[in-house]
Structures are given as structure tokens and as C-alpha cells.
Amino acid sequence: MELAELAWPAVAALPKTTPVVFPIAALEQHGKHMPVFTDSLLLGEVIRRVKLTPVADKCLFAPLTWLGNSHHHLDFPGTLSASPRVYLDTLKDLATCFLAHGFTRIVFVNGHGGNITPYQQALFELKQQHRDRRDLLLLALTYWDAAGNPVEKIPGLVQKRMGHACEWETSMVLRLNPKLVVGDVAQVPEVPHGREFTPGHRAWVMPDRSEPGHVGTPSAATAAKGEALFAHFAPGVAAYLERVVAWDGSWD
User: Does the global pTM surpass 0.70?
Assistant: First the structure.
């Protein structure tokens, strides 16, 4: 069900256990070869495919929110970003609107790595505000985590994990619209993930890691890999939403 297409009485009449799905992404630089709308385009396609599955009739989908927390990319022109606290509070407000009308299952489906820490904190704070509500299910899922590591299922993938404007993202954009990819990706140099001071966490902005703005191996991208990645991620998201629909109130 599409929130944007409903009148308010139709929304009010829905069962309050209907999962309310907020797709959240970003508009930010994606290297010299990819469009700034990459994250939103890719999440939009994942959600489009999810809406072709049976779970679509059991969930209420809000329009995609394209503004994300992208301050670590602000050194590159074209990036638009909400500061972390503003973004965090925006997510809380989106959820609070539906909580105020009695809905009890909120799911943020994410398409941008920079949104992960804010959405975790937003859900943490919301739960503290409603700490005695055992009927609430407050969730967030990043789409590339939904179905396990695609390397285990898709032959030929070079990267072992998601990067930025990388093999995975470039492949998916090639699948959607190759005209959006600038130049010959086979000539785009690899920018390794590096050790990143793991197992600890290092604060960074993109110029610390990459002069061109990408991280990974775009030169390995193909449209065929992009289709395989979409076919891997979208069913994972759909299966997760089926779990939300079926939730019986227990600790899953």
C-alpha cells in the first residue's frame, strides 16, 4: 500500500499492526563516475521490487526520503546533507507521527551507510520514550544486510562487502541506467577499504580515504552483476517485512 495515494480516512482504517515502512537514502557524491542520487536510485529499485511481492499488500510504504546524513561527503560539490542530530530527530519525528495515530510497527529500510548510526540512535531514543510499550516494534534494516553476503551466492564478485560507488553500486546503476555512469568504468582505479583501524572505530571524512570519492573496485562492475545483486537484496528485504507482519509480540 502506498501512503502517498491514500486519503487520511483510509490510513486511519488500517489495522494498527500494519508495518509502516520508511525508505531512507541520500543524495551525495559517488565518485567521479556515478550520479549523486545513487543511493536513492538503488534503494528505490529495491523497494520497487519488494512491492511486487505479496508482502506489499500487508505494509504501508511512505515515499522515499532522499535526504540523509552525508556530512562526511561535504568536501565534494553536489552533496546535500542533514547534520547528524537534525537527521536523527527527523527520523524520530517520522516515526512519532505514526505512533501518535496508534500504529505499532515502524521499519526504516535504509540505503546509505551514513544513516546507520543515526537510525540506531533514533530508535534507541524512541524506545526510551516508550519504554513500557511492549506492543511496539521499532526496526531499521540496511538493504545490503537483508539476505546475507551476496559473495556467497553471486559468482564473480570481487568485493567482499559494500563500498562506495564500488563494484556493487556501480553494477546496480549499470543495470538501471548505464547512461548515468560516466566514462569507462574499466579504467576507474581501485581504492581499497584499508584496515580502518579495526577492530576499533576510526572517525573519518571521505578525503581521508579517497581523492576521487569512491571506495572499492568499480572496474569490476557489470550490469549482469547488478541484476544479480538486486535479485539477492530485494527478496531479503521482503522476507524481513514478512517477519514484521508475523511478529507475535515475543522477543524475536
Answer: yes
